């Protein structure tokens, strides 16, 4: 696998039974980024949202409950950990599971928002994230049925994975991260807690970088 | 004109699932052409074989309890005790297997057996992620539910 | 020559197309939420087509993912639509439920504990739901939540025991079996009672 251009040298592999997560130069770089962002969301103080009254000088600070902030922070850290897992895992099905975990933690980060628009967008996004499990698990199933393995180590460089499975994998990650369909996210970023909401964008970006690597390698 | 119409659809987030549905349908339709050319090699890992006479049917994978059993794992070298869980039966399920021919229908419910071997041992990381997803989904529901109770 | 796998694949593709076509037609949010469940059955379809023991083990995560997302989304839907306040007085007003002996519930719980594992947890959870539905509930929400959290930790501990000390596999299998029993019981009983009725 490490003869592929995109991967770089092998740094470290962790044998967990059939699932062997690995750090190549590429995935280790991504993982380092994720760790930085987990630390940011763990130690950051969220902003206080200001509402400005149109046509006047008046503004007021929104009241955000301590418990809401704590919930969002927990989910942002969970989202970071899920992204870390998705970035280093060495197994296709495991990657799809981590992608689903990223999708659900993304909704969870904004779930405590009181704003109706934010919740509406989060709900629509959640529906897409849920039906995205079909192409995700579907691609893993097709890969397993046609090649007889799920391990990226074995699949690397074989070129045996059908195009349909690759397309479904990318489509599934698109659904979990809503990467090209940003319109749902434009509404979502109105939720409180800027550093946590940032995690939503960051995780989908990294999911995309990882799935590009997987599709190129298998 | 078409672009204006398209961007009108894309800019409304209630259309998100609709847009996504169209994308999936397009990919599946295009992919259906290639289905006859796919070869089936799925039985390389953990193949299923059925012995109708065994009380553990359809989960009888042989092996002696507390001894080695051959299991077609991806990386057998990573699991030194591979097969031990597959062959293990709890005392209750052992008694049931001796008494009836239909133990296999409930073996998934007891500790031990091939499914537990895959779920707990060789593909344990999958199960960890899966339970974490359940945990997160549950945490969201419980948090919103309790907040509503307190209000 | 088209064999079973190909027939199955083509059938599954048709089902997926029909399922996703429903998303094009449906505009109501609640109906869409229900349709997601229909769509995610298609994922299980595709996994089941592989037809090995591994596929059977992969179906479980697929199923669980759907349930948990549905749970979270349904609760978000309630908040979004502002439906939290108007809770129904009593949903299941059936006479049998009031007169049913509670021993049925305890039989279910005990049988679930004997079964242990995932389906054991489901059976035991059913018993708990049955009891709560019959007798009304003064639920101790936080307690059950905490218990299920610890069960999750026990599960993770079992996973690390298997990977780091493989010789202790027996201990790990028992911990995992017990933990999933408690976890599924707790979650099922909570889902069954999260209706926002009377209570603490």
Automatic annotation (TrEMBL), chain A:
Q: What residue intervals traverse the membrane?
A: 20-43, 71-89, 95-113, 125-146, 152-175, 196-217
InterPro entries xref list: NiFe-hyd_3_EhaH_prd
* Residues in coiled coil: none
Does this UniProt record's set of keywords contain Transcription?
A: no
Q: Where is the signal peptide?
A: none
Keyword field contains Transmembrane: yes
Per UniProt, which keywords does this protein have? Membrane, Transmembrane, Transmembrane helix
Q: What is this protein called?
A: (NiFe)-hydrogenase-3-type complex Eha, membrane protein EhaH
Question: What species is this protein from?
Answer: Methanocalculus taiwanensis
- Source taxonomy: Archaea, Methanobacteriati, Methanobacteriota, Stenosarchaea group, Methanomicrobia
UniProtKB/TrEMBL annotation, chain B:
* InterPro entries linked: Prd_NiFe_hyd_3_EhaF
- Keyword annotations for this protein? Membrane, Transmembrane, Transmembrane helix
Source organism, top-level taxon: Archaea
Membrane spanning stretches: 20-38, 127-145
Pfam (any one): EhaF
**Designated name of the protein:** DUF2106 domain-containing protein
Organism (species): Methanocalculus taiwanensis
UniProtKB/TrEMBL annotation, chain C:
UniProt key word Transmembrane: yes
* Matching Pfam families: EhaG
Keywords, comma-separated and alphabetical = Membrane, Transmembrane, Transmembrane helix
User: TM segments?
Assistant: 6-24, 100-133, 153-182
Q: What is this protein called?
A: DUF2105 domain-containing protein
Higher taxonomy: Archaea, Methanobacteriati, Methanobacteriota, Stenosarchaea group, Methanomicrobia
């Amino acid at each position: 696998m490490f003869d592929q251009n995109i991967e770089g040298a092998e740094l470290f592999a962790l044998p967990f039974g059939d699932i062997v997560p690995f750090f190549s130069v590429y995935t280790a770089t991504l993982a380092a980024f994720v760790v930085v962002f987990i630390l940011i969301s763990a130690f950051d103080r969220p902003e206080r949202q200001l509402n400005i009254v149109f046509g006047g000088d008046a503004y007021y600070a929104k009241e955000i409950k301590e418990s809401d902030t704590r919930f969002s922070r927990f989910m942002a850290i969970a989202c970071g950990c899920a992204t870390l897992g998705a970035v280093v895992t060495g197994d296709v099905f495991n990657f799809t599971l981590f992608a689903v975990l990223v999708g659900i933690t993304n909704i969870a980060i904004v779930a405590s928002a009181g704003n109706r628009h934010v919740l509406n967008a989060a709900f629509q996004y959640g529906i897409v994230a849920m039906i995205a499990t079909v192409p995700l698990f579907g691609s893993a199933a097709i890969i397993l049925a046609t090649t007889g393995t799920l391990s990226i180590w074995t699949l690397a460089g074989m070129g045996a994975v059908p195009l349909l499975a690759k397309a479904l994998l990318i489509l599934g990650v698109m659904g979990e991260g809503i990467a090209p369909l940003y319109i749902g996210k434009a509404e979502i970023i109105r939720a409180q807690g800027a550093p946590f909401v940032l995690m939503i964008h960051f995780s989908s970006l990294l999911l995309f970088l990882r799935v590009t690597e997987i599709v190129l390698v298998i | 004109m078409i672009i204006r119409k398209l961007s009108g659809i894309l800019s409304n987030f209630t259309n998100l699932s609709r847009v996504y549905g169209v994308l999936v349908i397009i990919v599946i339709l295009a992919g259906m052409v290639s289905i006859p050319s796919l070869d089936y090699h799925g039985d390389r890992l953990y193949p299923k074989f059925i012995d109708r006479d065994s009380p553990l049917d359809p989960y009888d994978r042989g092996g002696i309890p507390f001894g080695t059993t051959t299991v077609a794992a991806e990386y057998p070298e990573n699991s030194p005790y591979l097969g031990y869980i597959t062959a293990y039966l709890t005392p209750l399920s052992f008694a049931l297997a001796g008494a009836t021919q239909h133990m296999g229908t409930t073996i998934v419910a007891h500790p031990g057996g091939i499914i537990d071997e895959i779920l707990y041992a060789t593909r344990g990381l999958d199960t960890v992620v899966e339970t974490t997803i359940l945990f997160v989904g549950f945490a969201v529901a419980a948090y919103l539910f309790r907040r509503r109770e307190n209000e | 020559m088209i064999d079973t796998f190909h027939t199955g694949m083509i059938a599954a593709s048709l089902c997926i197309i029909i399922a996703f076509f429903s998303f094009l037609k449906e505009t109501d949010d609640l109906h869409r939420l229900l349709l997601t469940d229909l769509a995610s059955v298609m994922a299980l379809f595709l996994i089941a087509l592989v037809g090995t023991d591994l596929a059977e083990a992969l179906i479980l995560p697929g199923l669980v993912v759907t349930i948990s997302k549905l749970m979270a989304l349904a609760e978000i839907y309630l908040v979004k639509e502002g439906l939290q306040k108007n809770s129904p007085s009593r949903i299941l007003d059936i006479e049998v439920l009031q007169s049913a002996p509670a021993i049925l519930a305890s039989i279910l719980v005990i049988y679930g504990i004997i079964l242990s594992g995932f389906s054991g947890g489901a059976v035991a959870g059913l018993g708990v739901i049955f009891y709560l539905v019959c007798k009304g509930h003064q639920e101790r929400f936080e307690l059950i939540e905490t218990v299920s959290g610890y069960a999750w930790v026990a599960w993770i501990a079992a996973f690390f025991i298997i990977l780091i000390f493989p010789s202790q596999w027996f201990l790990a299998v028992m911990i995992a079996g017990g933990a999933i029993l408690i976890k599924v019981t707790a979650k099922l009983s909570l889902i069954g009672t999260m209706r926002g009725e009377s209570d603490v």
